[in-house]
Structure formats: C-alpha cells, structure tokens
Design goal:
69% of the residues lie in helices and 10% in strands. The protein is of the alpha+beta class.
Length: 1182
C-alpha cells in the first residue's frame, strides 16, 4: 500500500486545482517561506479526518477554504482527495485503489467520500486505523512538532506507540464494548427495578384475578335471575293495572253526572250572591254618606272657635318671617362688600403680573443673545480643532507614506536583481525542456500500444472468470439444497429417535416400568425383535396391544413389576416371563404354504434372541402373514380354526371369519414402522452426504480455477493500470513540460516588462517622496496657526459662559416672582367665587321667605270672610242625613229575604259536593294506585337498563319458560350475599394480570438475555485487554531495541532507552525517554539542547517506523534545528527505509540532494500557491 497522489482545490492557498504525484522513495517539497509548502502537510492531515483547527495552524475550520486575494474572489468550497494504492489489500476494502475525499463549504457543511461514495468520518478513521497513517499516528509530523514527541508528557507519547503496535482498533472496540456494558448495566438496573415492582404486585393481582373471575360468573348468573324476576313482576303489575283502569272508567261516569247537578246549583247560588253583594254595596255607600253627613254637621258646629285661634297664629308667623328676611339682607350686604375689596386686590396683582411678564421676556431675550454668541464661539472652536487634527493627521500620513516609499524603492531594487537572475536561468533551461518533451512523446506512443494489448487479455480473463463464477453459483445452490435436505432428514430422524428414547406412543405403564430400573426386566416386546422391511404394518397389527407387553426373566420379576404399578397407580401391563411362557407354532396345509400370497408364520418372519423363542411363538406363532385381503380370506376358509391371517397392509381375518382393517393417521403412530423409518432416513442421509461431498469437490475445483484466473487477471490488471498510470504520468509530464516552456516564454517577456516597470516605479517613488515631505511640512505649519487661534477662542468662551450663567440666574428670579403672583390671583378668584355662591344662597332664602308671608296673608283673608255661610250648610246636611237613614232600612229588609233563599240552596249544594268528593276521593285513590303501579313498572324497566344495560324488549329474549319465582329469589339472595362477601372487586385485574404475567415473563427473559450479553461483553473486554497488552508489550520491546541502535547511529555513539513508568500496568503507563549523547551523563530528555532533542525525536520516530513501517510518512521541516553534519546523518538514514514513501518539506539543500522527486511550491500571484515538479537524477545539481 502506498500513496499515489494528492489532489487539492480551494484548500488554503491552493486556489486552483493542484495535483502532487507521490513516487517511490523520497519526495522533497521546497519553496520560499510563505509559499504554501506546509499547506500540503495540512491537506493530508485534513483529508484523513483532522478536526482541530489548531493542528491545521488556524483558528477556525473554515479558514482552510481559500480566502481570496486582492485580485481573486474567495472560494466557496475546499476539497482534498488522497488516492491510495491498495493492491496488497492492507486497507479493509475491496478496491485496489482507494480515493479518500473531504469537502468543506463556507456554510460550515462537510462531506466525506470513499471512491466517490458518501461516508462518515468514522468510516474513514476505521478504514485507516492501525495502518500508521492516522492523524494521531506517527506518519504526519507537522511543522515544529518533531521535538514535541520527546517534550510532551509521558502519558501523551503513548499515542505513537499504540498506533505503531496496531492496538488503536482494539482500544476503540474495547471502549465501545465498555460503553455497551455500561448501557447494558443501566438497562439491567431498569429491568430489575421493573421486575421487582411487578413481583411486588403480581401475587395480589393473581388473587384479584381469581376473585374477579368468580365475581363475573356470579354476576352473569345474578343478571339472568334478576332479569327473569323483574319480568315476572312486570307481568303482575300489568295485570293489576288493567283491572284498575276499568274501575276508573266507571267512577268517571258517576262523577260526570254529579258534577252536572252541582253546576246548576252553583250557578243559581252565584246569581243570588251577586244580588246580595249589590245590595250590600248600596247599603255600605248609604252608610258612608250618612257617616260623612254626621261628621260635617259636627265640624260646622266647632269651626267658629277654630278660626279665631288660627288668625292669631298667622299674625305671629308673618312677624317672624319678616324679621328673618331683614337678617338675610344684612348678611348679603356684608358679603358683597367683601367681594368689592377682593376685586380691587385682584386688579392690583394683575397689573404687577403684566410688569413681571415684560421683565421676564426682556431677560429671556438677553439670555438668548448671549447663548447664541456662545454657540457660535463653540462651533468655531470645534471647526478649528477638526481642521487642526486633520492637518496633523495629513502631515503624519504624508511622512509615513514617504518612509514607505523608501522601503518600496529598496524592494524594487531587490526585485529587479532577482528578475535578472531568473531570466538568465530560464534561458538555460528552455533547450533542456524541449528535448525532454520529445522523449516523453515517444515513450507515450510505445506505452499506448502495450496498453491496447493488455486490455484485450484482461477482457478475455474476465469472461472466463464470469463463466466459472456462474458455475460456482450453481454448485452453491446445489450444496445449499443438499444441506437443507440433510438437515430435514436428520431432524426427522432425530425426532423419531427421541420418540423411541422417550417411549412415545407407549402407554404410561410401559414408560414407568422402563424408567424404574427394576431387575429382571428385559424390555418391551417391540424393542426385542427386528422386523424385515415391508412387514412392519402386518406384525404391528398382528401383535396389537401385545406390542407393548413387557418381557421379563422370571415370574417373581413380573410380580414385583405389577406391585410397583399398583403402588404408584401407574396403570396396567401384561408381563411375559421367559421361564413360564411357551408358545406353539401353527401348522398350515401345503396348499397355503406353497401359495404365492403366503409370506410366512409371524414368529418365523421376525428376528429375535433365541431365549425369547417361546414368547414370540406365543405372540406370533398362530399368526400367518399374507399379501392381500383376498389371500387372507381364501386361506382362512382352507385352514382350520386357531390361525389368524394378517395382510401386509394390516387387514386381519380372524379364525372366526371376522375382518378388521384401517390405518393410523400418521406414520409415527405405528411403533414398528417408525423403527424402520429411522433406518431408511439414515440410508438417505448417507447418500445425500456422499452427493454433497462430490458437490464440494466440484466447487473446490471451480474455486481453484477461479483463483488461478483471478490471480492472472489481477496481474494483467496491475500491468494495465501501471500502463495507464504510465500514460497519465507521461501526459502529465508532457503537459508540465509544455506548461513549463510556455511559462518560461511568458516569464521572459514578463520579466522584461517587470524590469521596465520597476525602473519607472523607482523614479515615480522618488518624486512622490519629495512631494510628500513638502506637503507634510505645510500641514504642520497650518496646524500650528490653528492651534493659536483655538486658544484665543477658548478665552472668549470662558467670558461668555459667565454672562450666560448671570442671565440664567435673572430668568430664574423673575420666574419665581411671576409664579408667586399667579398663585395670588388664583387664590383671590377662588374666594370671589365662594362669596358669589353665598350671595346667591341668601337671595334664594329671601325669595322663599317672601312667598311664605304671601301664603300666610292669603290664609288670613280666607279665614276672616268664610263664617257667614256655615249656618245654611248645617241645615242642608241634617235633611240629607234623615233621607239616608230611610234608604238604608229598605235595603236591609230586601237582603234578609234573599239570605233565606240562599241558605236552602247552599244546603243542597253541600250534599251534592259531599257525594262528588266521595267519588273523587275513591277515583283519586285508584289513580294513585295506578300511578304507583305505573311508576313501579317504569322502575322495573329502568332497573333493567340501569343494572344490566338492556331494554325491556331485549330482556324478553332472556325470559325462561321453566322459571320458578321462589327458587330464583332464593338463589338470587344467595348470590347477592356472596357478592357482598367478595367486597370490592377489580374486574380489570383479569386482563391486567394477563398483561403483567406476560410482561413479567418477557422481562425475566430480557434480564437473562442482558445478563448473558454482559458476560459476553466482559469476556470481549478481557480478551481485548489481553490482546492490547500483548501486542503493545511486544511492539514496545522492539521499539526499545531499535531506538538504542538508531540513536547510536544518529549520534555516533551514546546510549538511549525507553521505560514504562508503571511496568505493572502497561495499558495506562506513561513512557519515559532517557538519552545519553556521546561524552555526556545519562540525563532526562528535557535537559537536552534543542538540536539534541530533535535528533533524539528523529531517532525515536525512525525506531517506530522500523518496527512498524507505515506506507507513507510526511515530515515538515523536522531537520530545521540540525546542523549540516546531522542533516547528512538524517538524510542518509532516511534512505535506508525502502518500503516507506517519504514526503519531506524542507529548506535544507543537503536534504534535497537525497530526494528522488522534487516539488517546488511557488507563489507567482500573491496569496495563490502553484506546484512545479522535477524528477531528479543522480547527476542533478541544485
């Protein structure tokens, strides 16, 4: 594995696409300071996943994107692609060439790609893990970072050694396993908490569930009983209601008749009462008039006495009210006098207020004039200051520009000298480049012809491999099919064998005896014989239940076994003692024996141990096996009694002529057939395994052929790619050479133009410098003049400021005086308003008093002139009284006669009402009873809905014809009592218990799974720790040895060693570096000089590389601190590494001499880097 090329576009100073081809050996990257050499190292570090801007010599990650120059716009994206040759397959990916790409956009988004397929940063890190080329490894040593290897803390040095030891991947997996273990531990705690919570309630839930099930059963029965009881009660109520409705209809007729009679009486009584009421009203009116006449007569008799007293009272009231009017007038005059005085005061204050306002206006005008003067002075001062500052700034700027022009003239002089030297070099190199271009064109044509030939060979091999691949797929399918068949047959065979081992199909007594281990038990009859293939069904049918008989040695053994069955109630069995059972063999006519359908006597067909001969003759000696049922029937007729004929299909013809037939539902139900099936399955499996072996041999041969073809194809493809690369390389070289010639031609003319431009710029700069000095002096003198003027203006400003303060104080005093006068006027106005309100009140009171006097005088006049008419009025009132008394007497007599008639009618009305009330009461009672029944009927129907949520029509479906009310009520009471005993029932406990049980089983299994997973993770972590410790220790020991050897080679002697600061914990121990240069005492690395530190760090880096070579290593000015002799040692030792590509960024000529390829980084345009490459020969002189 090696790096092929690096492609950059928009990365830092590489604004344009740039490609650096990495070749074998040492590649040197040179160029002036600031040209962008170290950006190549940063690009490799960045594309391999660096996330720290600090490691890329920046502050923010977005700084890797080309930021633009004065003449170029900034880029919106940075992209770097690193192409790696993976022909050896060191990277775990099925590509011979791997292109790792990283893009970053100015918006902050990033992309990672592997062979143009999007991926994650993690995928790239895992891809290059433990290869030594990671960003934390030892393959990328940045600028000024070489000494950090030895200067950093002992713990920090471990990264290099771990990367070299190849344990980063294991540590990463260990850390991931530890995270998973921590997560699993947390999950286990949660699961345990849930299980504990469930266990605390599952027992109660189980009890509640049982209780709820009983409750639901009782409730269903109770519902059925109560519905039928309610239906029976509803039927009884409906019968009662029908009778009550008939009675109510009869009573309604009687009540209607009595109501008509009573209505006539009521109308007559009503008319009489109306007449009586009218007479009573007339009598009352006459009495009221009589009473009024009597009162008026009495009043007229006493009126003369009252008038005299009233006139005396009126005179007193008129005198009193007059005095009150005089008093109110005096008070009114006093208030009006006060108001006049206040008006005079108000006029005086208003006069003063006008004078004060005029004074305030004058003071304000004076203040505004002074303020305006002050503002003008301030503005003039500020303007002078600004002009002065501007002039001084201009003077400083002109002086700085003059000094800058001096520096500029010096740089122009140096640049002119540099251009002259470059022009000379360009002319020398132009001819050599033309010859090189011609040579590259000839090599390209030869390579192109070889490429066409290689392409044909590659295509042919691909076709052959494709055919072999198709053949292998067919073999894989065949193998898979055979494996499935073998697995199926083995599974079937294992199942039957397990059934045999567990005595499946045998009754419980057989299983008990065979597992009891009793002595003398030989086995089951079915197990102690071997039946030929094809005779299983016939023999099993012939034996029937006897197939499960137990064969024992002696009678005593049978007795013990029978006792054991009795004691354990394990069932019944037939035992066949070998010493007791004797059987005989049936003798058949020759016509039967010689017939083709006769197969033999059962005891002769089966195989068994000789000692069981008597038993099997007993079982099968009287049974003949024949081919078909017809043969059995024919032979039965030809043979005497005592012989059974059984066909191969299992039909039986008994000696009596009875025929039995049929078949079991599945093959394993026949005990003997399944024994035969085991043998057949074993035979099939052997045949399939032989076929599988032949298939695998064919596949192996196919794999061998494919491997040979693939190796040949890979070799041809490598040749093809190498030819492609050669062509690309030649094209690149041709383009580079052409570009170089064009650049040289363009540079030649450009150099002449630049020299002419430099001469012109030098003369312009000289003239500009003189002008700038003169202008600067003018600005300084003008600034001094303005500075003097500013001082004068500041003095005037101080004087005006005093005047402004005095004017401000005057305004304040006048405003205070004005506010005081405003307050006085406001107070006077309020007092005047209050006085006028008081005067208005006095006027209203005087008017009221005068009206009162006028009323009293009018009343006095009425009293004096009203006494003459009183006597005549008294006489007329006495006559009116006599007339009213006579009218009242007549009305009383008429009312007495009407009262007698009314009393008789009322008596008859009472009797009619009593009868009507009696019938109505009876009807009401019946209606109440009917309403109660209806209510009760509705209650029963509502009960059906409330208790059972069914309507009356739905309840009729539950009605039972054989329902007995008394027994149902008794059972209902018992169920109700039991429901009370059950108390509160949680019906949901049934479903909840089912759910909790299911969840409990699930969580218990989950806990088991988590525990097993945790054990596996702990085992993985232990294995990782052992692997890491072993690999790290082995690698560290090798680095220690190599470090000692290389240190001596680099320093020309001395001693160096590496130590773990904790030997007992190599996984976490820091690494101490002890170095002793020649002639010095053994000392800590931090006590050495900078050059010694660098040499020691290089020795350590070489030791690591020698122990675990990395495919590629880039070193950025690592030898900058070394002298020439040490650089020579460094470069020579660098050449000793033959399997590592080195890219060295350097300024040292000694290092360049050892390079195979030289890349130059230039910056022809400021801020934009450009790459130039040269392939160096041994005779090249720098």
């Amino acid at each position: 594995m090696y790096f092929k090329r690096l492609e950059m576009h928009g990365f830092k100073s590489f604004a344009e696409p740039a490609v650096i081809e990495f070749h074998e050996g040492v590649t040197c990257i040179v160029g002036p300071n600031g040209s962008g050499k170290s950006n190549i190292s940063d690009a490799i570090r960045w594309v391999l996943g660096e996330q720290s801007p600090k490691m890329l010599r920046g502050g923010k990650m977005e700084e890797v994107i080309f930021a633009g120059t004065a003449n170029r716009k900034s880029r919106g994206m940075a992209e770097v692609t690193l192409v790696i040759d993976n022909t050896e397959g060191r990277l775990p990916i099925d590509y011979n060439e791997v292109a790792i790409t990283r893009r970053m956009y100015r918006s902050g988004e990033s992309e990672y790609l592997i062979n143009n397929n999007q991926c994650r940063l993690r995928d790239i890190r895992e891809l290059i893990m433990d290869t030594g080329i990671g960003v934390d490894g030892y393959s990328i040593i940045g600028q000024g970072k070489i000494a950090d290897i030895v200067s950093s803390k002992p713990e920090s040095r471990r990264e290099i050694f771990e990367e070299a030891a190849g344990v980063v991947m294991y540590k990463s997996k260990k850390a991931e396993s530890e995270r998973k273990l921590s997560s699993a531990t947390a999950n286990l705690e949660r699961v345990n908490d849930i299980i504990n919570e469930i266990e605390s309630r599952i027992d109660n839930l189980r009890d509640d569930s049982v209780k709820a099930q009983e409750y639901l059963e009782l409730k269903d029965r109770f519902k059925d009983l109560e519905i039928n009881i309610t239906l029976r009660n509803i039927e009884k109520l409906e019968e009662t209601n029908n009778v009550a409705k008939d009675d109510l209809a009869h009573m309604a007729q009687l009540i209607e008749k009595l109501s008509a009679e009573k209505k006539q009486l009521d109308d007559s009584i009503s008319e009489d009462r109306t007449k009586n009421d009218n007479l009573e009203q007339l009598s009352n009116k006459a009495k009221d008039r009589l009473l009024a006449s009597v009162e008026e007569i009495n009043s007229l008799t006493n009126k003369s006495q009252l008038d005299a007293e009233r006139l005396n009272s009126i005179d007193k009231d008129i005198t009193r009210v007059g005095e009150e009017i005089i008093s109110l007038g005096e008070r009114k005059e006093r208030e009006l006098s006060n108001a006049g005085e206040l008006e005079a005061q108000k006029k005086d204050i208003e006069k003063k207020l006008i004078e004060t306002q005029e004074k305030l206006d004058n003071v304000i005008k004076e203040y505004e004039l002074i303020t305006e003067t002050a503002v003008k002075l301030a503005e003039e001062t500020d303007e002078c200051k600004n002009k002065m500052y501007s002039l001084f700034n201009k003077s400083t700027s002109k002086t700085s520009e003059a000094k800058s022009l001096e520096s500029y003239k010096e740089s122009l002089k140096q640049r002119k000298q540099q251009l002259v030297e470059e022009e000379t070099r360009l002319k020398e190199n132009e001819e050599a480049s033309k010859e090189e271009l011609k040579k590259y064109a000839e090599q390209k044509e030869e390579t192109r012809k070889a490429l066409i030939s290689a392409e044909g060979q590659v295509n042919l091999l691909k076709e052959q491999i494709e055919k072999l691949s198709e053949q292998r797929k067919q073999l894989d399918k065949q193998e898979s099919h055979l494996q499935i068949q073998i697995s199926q047959f083995n599974g079937r065979k294992k199942t039957i064998e397990e059934m045999e081992a567990n005595y499946e199909g045998y009754n419980g007594a057989v299983k008990f005896i065979m597992k009891s281990g009793l002595k003398g038990i030989e086995g089951v009859a079915a197990d102690l014989m071997k039946v030929p293939s094809g005779f299983e069904t016939a023999v099993e049918t012939a034996l029937g239940a006897a197939l499960q008989n137990i064969i024992c040695l002696r009678d005593e053994d049978a007795k013990k076994a029978v006792k054991a069955l009795k004691d354990n109630k394990a069932g019944r069995l037939t035992f066949l003692p070998v010493e007791s059972v004797r059987g005989s063999k049936a003798s058949l006519p020759d016509a039967v024996i010689s017939h083709a359908g006769f197969k033999g006597i059962g005891s002769d067909l089966v195989q068994y141990d000789e000692k069981y001969e008597g038993i099997f003759r007993y079982l099968l000696g009287r049974t003949a096996i024949v081919a078909t049922m017809q043969d059995a029937i024919d032979f039965s007729k030809k043979t005497g009694s005592g012989v059974r004929f059984v066909t191969l299909e299992g039909e039986v013809v008994n000696a009596s002529g009875a025929i039995t037939g049929g078949r079991y539902k599945n093959a394993t139900a026949n005990l003997l057939e399944r024994k035969g099936e085991i043998q057949k399955l074993a035979h099939k499996v052997r045949n399939l395994e032989e076929e599988l072996f032949r298939t695998r041999q064919g596949r192996a041969q196919c794999d061998s052929d494919m491997k040979g073809k693939s190796e040949a194809l890979e070799e041809k493809e490598n040749s093809y790619r190498e030819l492609q690369l050669a062509i690309l390389s030649l094209e690149s070289k041709i383009e580079t050479a052409k570009s170089f010639l064009e650049d040289m031609s363009a540079n030649g003319s450009r150099h002449k133009q630049q020299i002419e431009s430099i001469d012109k710029d030098q003369s312009d700069a000289e003239a500009m410098a003189v002008n700038l000095e003169r202008e600067a002096e003018e600005c300084r003198s003008r600034g001094k003049a303005l500075e003097n003027k500013i001082e004068e203006l500041m003095c005037e400003q101080e004087k005006v400021k005093v005047q402004v303060d005095d004017a401000s104080d005057k305004i304040t005093d006048v405003r205070i005086e004005k506010n005081s006068l405003d307050g006085s006027i406001e107070g006077l106005e309020q007092m005047l308003k209050r006085i006028m309100n008081t005067v208005h009140d006095f006027n209203q009171q005087i008017d009221a008093k005068e009206e009162e006097i006028a009323a009293l005088r009018e009343e006095k006049e009425r009293t004096l002139f009203g006494t003459d008419d009183a006597e005549e009025l008294l006489k007329s009132k006495i006559e009116e009284k006599t007339s009213l008394e006579e009218y009242i007497s007549k009305v009383s007599e008429e009312r007495s006669s009407l009262a007698k008639k009314l009393e008789d009618k009322i008596s008859r009305q009472v009797q009619a009402q009593e009868k009507l009330n009696a019938y109505q009461d009876q009807k009401y009672r019946e209606e109440i009873k009917l309403a109660k029944n209806e209510t009760q009927l509705d209650t029963f129907k509502e009960k059906l809905w409330e208790d059972f949520e069914i309507s009356y029509l739905q309840a009729i479906d539950f009605k039972k014809s054989d329902f007995v009310m008394s027994s149902a009520q008794k059972e209902s009471r018992e169920i109700r009592n039991r429901l009370k005993e059950l108390g509160d029932v949680n019906v949901g406990a049934i479903e909840e218990y089912a759910q909790v049980s299911e969840r409990y089983e699930f969580l218990t299994q989950q806990r088991k799974d988590i525990t097993e997973a945790m054990e596996q993770l702990r085992d993985i972590i232990d294995d990782m720790e052992k692997t890491i410790k072993s690999k790290f220790k082995d690698n560290f020991d090798k680095v220690v040895v190599n470090f000692e050897k290389i240190f001596k080679a680099m320093f020309g002697g001395g001693h160096a060693e590496l130590r773990l600061d904790n030997e007992n914990d190599p996984l976490e121990a820091g690494i101490e570096i002890i170095a002793q240069p020649p002639g010095k005492k053994l000392q800590n690395i931090n006590l050495m000089s900078g050059g010694e530190k660098t040499m020691t760090a290089i020795a350590l880096m070489f030791a690591v590389l020698q122990t675990t070579p990395t495919p590629f290593c880039i070193l950025d000015e690592v030898e900058a601190a070394l002298d020439d002799m040490n650089i020579e040692r460094f470069a020579k030792y660098l050449r000793s590494f033959h399997d590592i590509q080195f890219a060295i960024i350097t300024h040292q000529k000694a290092t360049m001499e050892y390079a195979d390829v030289l890349y130059g980084i230039t910056m022809p345009e400021r801020g934009v880097s450009k790459v130039l490459s040269l392939r160096l020969g041994d005779d090249f002189q720098l």
